[in-house]
């Protein structure tokens, strides 16, 4: 168990029947870059039961925050969804992940494309002052099946709009684009299709994809992570990683589905 730190749950909020978020204490020695993930979980029968979770909190915040799906028969989430304030969770001592700005070559517009709980690392990144320093525009797109599943993302963005420091930055630079596939909503459709048709860019009043200016991060469903990189590669975008920065990066570590 020495690879894990015991942390205390501070709050839990259930957004829908299938989504919840929670905060926990943060060991002063735990360091991470915005956009990274860590192994978190519970002690079950004396052994750690762990899964990869992106930090939804920023690295300058005192508490840790996570955004999770509920899987009724999932080995971890069937238990994790029942946590309450005061419970103990395990957090791995080391953070990692590809969704960090250092894995992208410099650009002017940053596209953060997510579905479902793939929003979590971007909830961290849009609270990073350096992101606003390095990019002229940040577009946060979040795709879900139903309108209710957008609630957490809307809550995060709304909180930043009211924030003393981030409020002015967001007004000038952050474009939030929620979209759903199964209910009436102002934005309808899969993120993949909305980018392919240029509808997303038309809706926000901005030019379409441009390899000279656009840098992209992806986190979400397997389908999106298969289709969009192929589309980007066909348009001359190069995938980046820790050893070689590129035009776009992907996070392939997922919480159980």
UniProtKB/TrEMBL annotation:
- Extract the coiled-coil ranges from the record: none
Chemical reaction(s) catalysed: 2 reduced [2Fe-2S]-[ferredoxin] + NADP(+) + H(+) = 2 oxidized [2Fe-2S]-[ferredoxin] + NADPH
Q: Quick check: keyword Glycoprotein in the entry?
A: no
The family database entries (Pfam families) matched by this protein are listed as: FAD_binding_6, NAD_binding_1
| Source species, domain of life | Bacteria
The question of whether Oxidoreductase is a record keyword is answered with yes
E.C. code:
1.18.1.2
Going by the UniProt record, its keywords in alphabetical order are:
FAD, Flavoprotein, NADP, Nucleotide-binding, Oxidoreductase
Segments forming domain FAD-binding FR-type: 2-105
Q: Which major enzyme category is it?
A: oxidoreductase
Fetch the CDD domains from UniProt: FNR1
Show the GO MF annotations: ferredoxin-NADP+ reductase activity; nucleotide binding
Q: Name one GO biological process term.
A: cellular response to oxidative stress
Cofactor(s), by name:
FAD
Spell out the family assignment given in the record's similarity comment: Belongs to the ferredoxin--NADP reductase type 1 family.
Recorded protein name is ferredoxin--NADP(+) reductase
Organism name: Bradyrhizobium nitroreducens
């Amino acid at each position: 168990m020495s690879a894990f730190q015991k942390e205390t749950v501070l709050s839990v909020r259930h957004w829908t029947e299938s989504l919840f978020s929670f905060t926990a204490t943060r060991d002063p020695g735990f360091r991470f870059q915005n956009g990274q993930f860590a192994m978190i979980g519970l002690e079950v029968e004396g052994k750690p039961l762990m899964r990869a979770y992106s930090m939804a909190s920023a690295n300058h915040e005192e508490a840790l925050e996570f955004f999770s799906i509920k899987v009724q028969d999932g080995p971890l989430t069937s238990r994790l969804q029942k946590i309450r304030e005061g419970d103990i969770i395990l957090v791995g001592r080391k953070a990692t992940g590809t969704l960090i700005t250092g894995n992208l070559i410099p650009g002017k517009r940053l596209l953060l494309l997510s579905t479902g709980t793939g929003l979590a690392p971007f909830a961290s990144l849009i609270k990073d002052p350096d992101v606003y320093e390095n990019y002229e525009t940040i577009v946060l797109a979040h795709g879900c099946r139903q309108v209710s599943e957008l609630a957490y993302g809307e809550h995060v963005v709304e909180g930043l709009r009211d924030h003393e420091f981030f409020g002015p930055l967001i007004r000038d630079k952050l474009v939030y684009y929620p979209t759903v596939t199964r209910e009436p909503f102002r934005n309808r459709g899969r993120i993949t299709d909305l980018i392919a048709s240029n509808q997303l860019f038309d809706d926000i009043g901005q030019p379409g994809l441009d390899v000279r200016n656009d840098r992209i991060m992806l986190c979400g469903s397997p389908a999106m992570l298969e289709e969009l990189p192929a589309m980007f590669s066909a348009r001359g975008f190069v995938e980046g990683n820790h050893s070689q920065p590129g035009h776009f990066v992907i996070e392939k570590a997922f919480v159980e589905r």
